[in-house]
Design a protein that fits this description.
By secondary structure, the chain is an alpha/beta fold. The chain has two domains: about 30-270, TIM Barrel (Alpha-Beta Barrel); about 275-370, no CATH class. It has helices at about 45-50, 60-65, 70-75, 80-85, 95-100, 130-140, 155-175, 195-205, 225-235, 250-260, 270-275, 310, 315-325, 325-355, 355-370, and strands at about 5-15, 15-25, 25-30, 30-35, 60, 90-95, 105-110, 115, 125, 140-145, 185-190, 210-215, 245, 265-270, 280, 285-290. The strands form four sheets. An eight-stranded parallel beta sheet has the order 4-14-13-12-11-10-6-5.
Length: about 375
Amino acid sequence: MTRDFAFEVEARDGAARKGAIYVRHGVVRTPAFMPVGTAATVKAMFPRDVRATGADIVLGNVYHLMLRPGAERIAALGGLHRFMNWPHPILTDSGGFQAMSLAKLRQLDEQGVTFQSHIDGSRHVLTPERSMEIQRLLGSNIHMQLDECVRLPCSDAEAERAMRLSLRWAERSLAAFGDQPGKAAFGIVQGGASPALRIESAKSLAAMNFHGLAIGGLAVGEPQDVMLAMLETVMPHLPEDRPRYLMGVGTPDDIVEAASRGIDMFDCVLPTRAGRHGLAYTRFGRVNLRNARHADDPAPLDPGASCAAARNFSRAYLHHLMKAGEILGMMLLTQINLAYYQELMAGLRQAIERRRLGDFVAQAKEQWAKGEESV
């Protein structure tokens, strides 16, 4: 699509696609799950261990890095790849999600978002232009437009206001991105739970010269059937030759359903956050290692897992670590979860290539249902 950026669809099974995104720092195999490294770190993980789980790309966040340590400081230290010792692809979120999640600490108008820092109360103005400038300073491979995400449910009037503002910000973001060989800019479809607004947003963004398109404003309070309905509404209006990214999603079940509908990229804090709180994701569903039932269980979490931590530590030991508040427990469960998510993505890619996606999804759901533990 540009020098040092390309997207290729290699195989299809129904609407699902297996492919690859090529950027200067490497290849992202799709469908892809991006571990969230909000503050230049995937919490409780060494970068080499994130890579060992099978991750091709991680996500960083403009808002948090703007506040600490500062984009200009990271640029002076050689950029985000060098700063966090991750020589592989990086996508940076624009800070738009924080306009929703930190609503009590911000003011929003046509120009952008004014934040009161949650760290020290200092004032920071984030416009589409400043967001793109920060992402340029960070040196990420994929830059996201600044948008306004609204929490669902909301009125159609509120969804329309935010969608139209996001479209105006998309134009400004793209102009500010300019010509950056080896980099890519993604637009973000908004529109709440309104099919008409979602279609208008998708068509308008598709007409712009973005390298890829994301679907935002989902997994923000609505049930899964609403999320999937919005995907089915939007997908026919997104260009076939560009990556499609569903932001902030999600659970393993959300991922397989969305990938089956043609989504190429995902990110979510769920596997890392869950790991820090004692919840493991496995082939056999979720396992809450804080439950007393595991205190005397010598069996490993999953003897057939590719992740050594899932094979080599007993459930009793993992339970002990979490009950004792030991950092190692958080590290091991985070690694187990990220490894499972990457196993799931590898399974999706293989199933699409073999045109066996339906069988793969049915088998995964059957295993989850048999093993799912009350949490």
